[in-house]
Design goal:
The chain contains twelve helices and eleven strands. It is of the alpha/beta class. α6 runs parallel beside α7. It starts with a helix and ends in a 14-residue tail after the last strand. Belongs to the class I-like SAM-binding methyltransferase superfamily. RsmB/NOP family.
């Protein structure tokens, strides 16, 4: 295992050798799969009743309309069969990791809000969080922005499959978003990150982990955060999340922005999900409230 990775996590998170050992042993263990029910097409009660005929063992999670699929011995075959059920082909549900549904829950405070908001999903592909925003804010207009044009086809397809309405697709970079000063009522930024979560699918990829790459990605995340902060209205909230555990892409990004713009926002909620504690892939969420305008003049050329 990557010694630099172990050293970093020991220094920053696990002072106890036993706690570190428990954490490291969780990296190559299988975690339960979860499904999220598409309430635009079917109610949870009806779908759960229909899935009983396939003998799937489903149990609720802490997330609304998200259920564990109990792991059977031959789970690869189980997942394959699940993907070919009529209910899946009709998009009554889709297979989504528990952590991936957490961002919207923390932004919405687990409540459906029928107020008319203008919401920005800043890095939206493949669209699962976009469709979830539409579920929790049914009367809002959602701008689904994706920086990479190569990823927009998948985003469009998933929005259409989930019957999501009131969604407008854009493809702007962070430099353009910065110009939309105090435009949005709520913003979700599930930021591009170093993908530490992929180790649960390919533990061998851990050997490529290094602080140089992490810091490079954190520089981009910081620019996105600043752009995002400027585009949010004063007094409103946004949520920043990554699928990484290191502090550089999480707390450090937030602290660096706050250092540039003192007292510009306050942290309402912050949580780090651990595989050996929360039974899900690792994930980090921070919900903040903007307290005042940020004074920053971006003068570089804008690329559309």
């Amino acid at each position: 295992m990557n010694s630099k990775f172990i050293e970093y996590f020991k220094e920053n998170f696990f002072k106890s050798e036993n706690d570190l050992k428990i954490f490291l042993s969780s990296l190559d263990k299988h975690l339960k799969k979860t499904i999220r029910i598409n309430t635009n097409k079917i109610s949870p009660d009806i779908l759960l009743e229909r899935l009983k005929k396939y003998n799937y063992d489903l149990s609720p999670t802490f997330s609304k309309n998200v259920y564990y699929i109990e792991r059977w011995e031959n789970f690869d075959e189980l997942e394959k069969r699940l993907g070919f059920t009529l209910e899946h082909l009709m998009w009554f549900f889709y297979i989504q990791e528990l952590w991936a549904s957490s961002s919207v829950f923390y932004l919405s405070d687990w409540k459906i809000d029928e107020t008319n908001y203008l919401i920005l999903d800043m890095a939206s592909s493949p669209g699962w969080k976009t469709t979830q925003l539409e579920e929790f804010y049914p009367n809002s207009f959602i701008v689904a922005n994706e920086f990479s044009r190569d990823r927009t086809a998948q985003l469009i397809a998933n929005i259409e499959r989930m019957w999501s309405e009131n969604v407008w697709l854009t493809c702007y970079n962070w430099q353009f978003i910065w110009r939309l000063t105090e435009t949005f009522d709520k913003i979700l930024l599930d930021a591009p990150c170093s993908w530490e979560w992929i180790w649960f699918k390919a533990i061998e990829s851990l050997k490529y982990w290094n602080l140089k790459n992490v810091k490079k990605i954190a520089d981009l995340q910081e620019k996105l955060f600043e752009s995002w902060l400027n585009a949010l209205k004063v007094g409103w909230e946004m949520l920043y999340s990554t699928c990484t555990m290191n502090k550089i892409e999480n707390e450090w990004v937030i602290e660096n922005v706050l250092r540039k713009y003192p007292d510009s926002f306050e942290i309402i909620t912050q949580k780090r999900f651990w595989p050996h504690i929360d039974n899900t892939w690792w994930f980090f969420v921070t919900r903040i409230k903007k307290l005042k305008s940020v004074d920053y003049k971006f003068s570089k050329k804008i690329e559309l």
